[in-house]
Amino acid sequence: MTISTGNSYLDSLTGNPKSGGTTTTTKSNQTLDQSSFLKLLTTQMTTQDPFDPVDNTQMVAQMAQFSSTTGIAEMNQSLKSIMSSLASSRVGDAASWIGKAALVESKTAAPLSDGSYAGKVTLPDNASSASVSLVDATGKVVYTGRAENVAKGDLPFYWDGKDQDGNAVAGPLTISVYAKDKDGKTMDSSTASWTTVQGVQSPASGTTKLVTALGTIDPADAIQLS
């Protein structure tokens, strides 16, 4: 059903015929590209009233605005292309970490590819004695290393990961540190452990993560890579 206003001119603008019938709606491209803009500008200049010409300042402003809009559109397209290239490059760079060991701050240690455990303890001051123990999930101490007169800084530890019978001990294991200063007082310390990078997560949007036995970590959090 169609509605007619009774005015042929209004009906032609609204697409309503005076009498009933079938109407066809067509969609037009509402985008004005650079070629169309220049054609419109040329038509405007050639058909202008010579006694009342178009203001040159206004015309230049229109051209500058259109050029700016076109430039922004082209820049956005270029940025999308650059982002796509960087995304593929990021995946390739992160993939080179797979199979390597990363040293990260952690209070737990996981077995490396050969089953061993390694890490370091950082002491804030000289210690008269220091011990590093690895404790399993049941609370059993499976390894203990001791040192005397330890200088402040990093104290590395290493264990082959095998018990007295030569069996591999499953992880992860908790790192326990007990250190005393020269006055016999217990001092605080920080710990880090080596973990093997098993894979990478590099979503199109978001940050790249390294998949390890200690969980997913940010590459920036790796203290050292081996």
Short structural summary:
With 226 residues, this protein is of the alpha+beta class. Helices cover 27% and strands 31% of the residues.
Task: Describe this protein with a few key phrases.
single chain, 226 residues, alpha+beta, Immunoglobulin-like, seven-stranded antiparallel sheet, four-stranded antiparallel sheet, 31% strand, elongated, disordered N terminus
Summarize the structure in words.
The relative contact order is 0.15. Residues 1-5 have low confidence and may be disordered. The strands form 2 sheets. Strands 1, 3, 6, 8, 9, 10 and 11 form a 7-stranded antiparallel β-sheet that branches. Strands 2-7-4-5 form a 4-stranded antiparallel β-sheet, with no helix packed on it. The longest helix has 40 residues, at 56-95. It is elongated, with a radius of gyration of 37 Å. The protein has a domain at 105-193: Immunoglobulin-like (Sandwich), CATH 2.60.40. It contains 3 helices and 11 strands. The chain starts with 7 loop residues before the first helix and ends with a strand. It has helices at residues 8-14, 34-46, 56-95, and strands spanning 101-105, 108-109, 117-123, 127-135, 141-150, 153-159, 173-180, 190-201, 209-212, 215-217, 222-225. It has 226 residues and is α+β, with helices and mostly antiparallel strands.
